[in-house]
Amino acid sequence: MAKSPEQEHPVKAFGWAARDSSGHLSPFDFSRRTTGENDVTFKVQYCGICHSDLHNIRNEWGGADYPMVPGHEILGVVTEVGNKVTKFKVGDKVGVGAIIGACRSCESCAQSLENYCPSMILTYNTKDREGSTTYGGYSDIMVTDEHYAVAIPDNLPLDGAAPLLCAGITVYSPLKNYGLDRPGLHVGVVGLGGLGHVAVKFAKAMGLKSAMGTVDIIIDTVSAVHALLPLVELLRSRGKLIMVGAPQRPLELPIMPLLFGGKIVAGSCAGGLTELQEMINFASEHNITSDIEVIPMDYVNTAMERLAKGDVRYRFVIDIKNTLKPAA
User: Fold this and answer.
1) Number of domains making up the chain
2) ∠ CA(287), CA(290), CA(294), 5° rounding?
3) Residue 230 maps to a domain
4) What is the mean pLDDT of each run of 10 residues along the chain (328 residues)?
5) CB neighbours of residue 97 within 10 Å
6) Where is the Enoyl reductase (ER) domain (predicted)?
């Protein structure tokens, strides 16, 4: 007989979960594993709300596994480390993004691109290697292998830094990997919501220039269905359109402008763990944080409705430390 979420592991945990495709979140008791020899356990203080959380809790992409505790923009303070941990100590500020496991042996992992590992384990709504469900950061504690945790510099506020663990790396990674981080290039950002406004901040810090005419680079952060032809036409010859948003339906791709302009349309999904730490350090050096609205835990369903309506141009961040309270 399968164990309940409360009995699956030895350590009691508490969070908010969705139970069905309505996406409504409510208090939820479950459990975490004990701290292993390579593990870091931390008290969650803040967790950002990503648009993918909304898609997942409503099963809009399919594959939802309920009950589901979302959240992959997780920041907190270390409370316990395993005896083989070398990167962290008790009291350190720590973050966890979208990935908490990978095979560590494939070609992608060898290049520190765990985000493209065929055996990648997501922070929530998937199964870990033992077959138990992974639960995200809308919760009081997290346990993860130290390889999948990043150190947060002291000058970065935990609330404003939380969205960097998804929104930040999602826009930083393509700028680096497609050679777009060279000062003087002209960049356009489509969509100035949770992803787009962070993309603008990183682009400015890298010395990229905004442009009114044709551009070298476009970062497309839009998750709604939209036309690509006007964006492709804005690109200079051999320009690049990088897709980081996730529309629910396929988009029409115009081929002729790509052929005759040598233009490239590519996708990018988050980043590997080495790059994630590099991005956090870059943000620290350039004082980059996300524009946020900090909310209490019991406001999360209203926040999701606002997100669904497009009634936000920044990132919601849940104050877990002060507002996540066990059910009476």
Assistant:
1) 2
2) 125
3) yes
4) 73 97 97 96 97 95 96 98 98 98 96 95 94 96 97 96 96 88 86 87 89 81 91 92 90 94 94 96 97 97 92 89 86
5) 29
6) 23-318
